[in-house]
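Sharing a chain and its predicted structure for anyone who wants a worked example. Both blocks are below, sequence first, tokens second.
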Amino acid sequence: MAESIALIVLLGLFSNYLLEKIRLPGLVGMLIIGVVFGPSFLDMMRPELLKVSADFRMVALIVILLRAGLELRRDTLNRVGKTALVMSVVPAVFEGVAIAALAPMFLGITWLEGAILGAILAAVSPAVVVPLMLKFMDEKRGTGKGIPTMILGASSVDDVFVIVIFTILLGMGAGQDMSIARKLLEIPESMLAGVALGALAGGILYLLFDRFHTRATKMTITVVAVAILLTWLEKSLHGVLAVSALLGVMTIGFVLLEKAETRAHKISQKLAKVWIFAEILLFTLVGAQVEPQVAWDAGLAGAALIIIGLVARSIGVMVSLIGADMNIREKLFCVVAYTPKATVQAAIGAVPLEAGIAGGEVILAVAALSIVITAPLGAIGIRLAGEKWLEKEGLKKAGLKKAEEAVEKDIV
């Protein structure tokens, strides 16, 4: 397994270098490396690595979500919180309903199977979106209106909402006896429980770091370990209490930033270095999960359905942003930022087939195709749209200052 990790790290670094040279997101190259060197083509990754792929991907996702939490400021969240909450539900509903309605016509599956497919495709990928939003926050792009922060929060809650709906529909398809109302209550329950446990963990960590004056490296290791235990707790409490561990992970970072900003920045800097390695693992292993032949089997009908779903999702985003303090370009950026699909689709795309759903093979094929189409194009689109349409905070201030000086001259 060690040689497989060494191979994908070296190839990941090389592909990242090449893509960055032509001003494209490096993660696109990493996804391609994962597909090419994964089991679908050259099959150069050891089976042991693929068996623990989900765990590696989860740790990498935790690293980037901790970084996201360590950048979430209370004042920014207060400004964009309501819009973020609407964005976490409305676009997913638009996309899911459109796919559920059209899937029987396009793919020859039942309405319920189409609804299950819609729930799978309606999830945005935090693995693709979060790193790019953090990059824009570092560059101060769109931060004046809190746009990257809003998308960070909304994309995380979006996954909670969609996965609960998917669980309900899957249970109906498998003939399970379940309370739909109880399952729907798991959406706010998992959000509140995740935030509460994350706040508790963050508070305890703050007290420990304050008491023992721990070095930044040890603080970082401790925070990551606690965040991993939070995901274990989510699994352990399954069936007893719904917990969104990923929201809890972000909350840990948020609490540490609120309580001890200097320490939070030190931890964030350390995590940024860890992310160089974690990013390669995450995206190459996501790429390895993609089965191009399965995606190919979805054909033009599957591709057309994915595109129609994205159009419906884009309408949902624009509806969510009605009344928001954004110009048309910034709203279009939010549309682009909400297109990539990868982690959730890779994780649950095969579940309906394993559960014995009649249209499981078709669902898996379209889910795989959605990753192939939207992950690289979405990442490229976010990078280009962000650089073109999001205003740098420093430039905006400079522009206002020049305008004020011009007005003063006119008065004189």
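Comments welcome. The domain at 54-411 is CATH 1.20.1530.20 (Na+/H+ antiporter like fold).
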